[in-house]
Amino acid sequence: MCVWKSATCFGAILATTLSAEATETSIRPELRPDMRVHMPEPVSEADKTQSFQVWIKGFKQRTLQVGISQQTLDQAFQGVRYDPNVIERDRNQSEFTKTIWDYLDSAASDLRVSNGKVALGKHQSKLDAIEEEYGVDKDVIVAIWGLESAYGTFRGSNKIVQSLATLAYDGRRGKFFQTQLVAALRILQDGDTIPDEMTGSWAGAMGHTQFIPTSYLAHAVDFNGDGRRDIWSDDPSDALASTAAYLARHGWVTGQPWGVEVTLPEGFDYTLANRSITKTPEDWAVLGVVDVDGTAVPNHGDGSILLPAGSQGAAFMIFKNFEVIEHYNTADAYVIGVGHLSDRISGGKPIKTNWPRGDRALTLDERLELQKLLTAVGFSTLGIDGKIGPRTIAAVRGYQVYNKLVPDGYPSLVLLKRLRKL
User: Fold this and answer.
1) Average per-residue pLDDT in the chain?
2) pTM of the predicted model, to two decimals?
3) Buried (b) or exposed (e) across 242-279, using 16+ Cβ within 10 A?
4) How far apart are CA 348 and CA 340, in angstroms?
């Protein structure tokens, strides 16, 4: 058993930090916890401040034993204090999820598209060089930049060491944030930046494209050749190249789209709209699945059909690069947002199919309730966590098939109300 106070355990955590590939499934942490947690009794701010400083002292001693220098620690923790605003943000994340259409209205708004075109033009030469080096489409790199920091205009102003130390001390996800804090210290010790310039979001995401420290250590690159992997400065070269390197190392297929909007034929078998079912575009065309102009989708490789809003919304044929972008952020809405924004920046058209805008997204409590009710009637979601992932979608689809409903796997409010009546 690993005891945190021991140097052996701390070394194991540092080893995990330095092998981020093995521990990170996306570039940033998922901000909502899997389950509701019991909160401790309130503690006064004065007591927290004192306790936090005691924790820092112990943390420094343990960190010295695994190769972080005293000079790095002194510089990194100078002026660091317990930040209650960070804890408040962590505790009070919204229980509501945007619908896919609301998300895309913002992610690929006219303003974001036009700003993306400006950014692409302004940095054309460096983006061309990055695309040549890593094989990742520059439009996709710019789209990620646009969603993560509005093309560098909102990179976050929180001091990363202070935010991570506060979250590590807090303990709710202490092990994760301790790992990120050690990684941040290693970045400082390597000389890539200084504490005052190591800024980002309250949760520890940094720079133009919002890398967490472990992902930075594993994937950041010095593209402009100045000897530092600088993702924080006004020059976005290293950040954009690091994003391309990250995607390339996760298997980016050069020239392949993330996905293509398609039209499904009348009488389509919606059980085929499953990420685990892949076919060539030619085979999909035989089944009547074509692009929105009525022609077969070009042969980009095997693809699957995705219905982010069920049978009443847009359908997409998605390819391997969809999965690659998921490593950056696992949410389908985010991946579609990046993909569609990149399409628009490069001159593509808006999504053609109408969305069911009369629907609304389920709240966290409603998602939990849906999972409980599905499980209770024999369609187990294999866990009650409020996340609508493949298992919950499979359970929804199983219930729909059994009850002779359209088996699109869409967890709608209408479906929840039907289950409530059982």
Assistant:
1) 91
2) 0.89
3) bbbbbbbebebeeebbbbbbbbbeeebebeebbeeebb
4) 8
Range of the domain at 380: 364-420
CB atoms within 10 A of CB 326: 18
141, 244 in Cβ contact below 8 A?
yes
Which of 175, 190, 205 is the C-terminal boundary of a domain? 190
Tokens 């930040």 found at: 83
The first and second tokens of residue 390, run together, are 């493949």
Does residue 318 fall inside a structural domain? no
CA terminus-to-terminus distance, the chain: 46
Nearest of 367, 268, 255, 257 to residue 315 by alpha carbon? 268
Say if residue 30's pLDDT is above 60. Answer: no
Environment class of 231 (CB within 10 Å of its CB; exposed 0-12, middle 13-18, buried 19+):
buried
Q: What angle do CA 62, 64, 68 make, to 5 degrees?
A: 125
State the Cα–Cα distance between residues 141 and 216, nearest whole angstrom: 16
Alpha-carbon gap, residue 260 to 262, rounded angstroms: 6
Domain count, the chain: 2
Q: How many CB atoms lie within 10 A of CB 18?
A: 15
Is residue 395 in some structural domain? yes
- Tokens in use for 395? 């359970």
Residue 105 forms part of a structural domain: no
17 has a pLDDT exceeding 50: no
**Most distant pair of Cα atoms in the chain: their distance:** 69
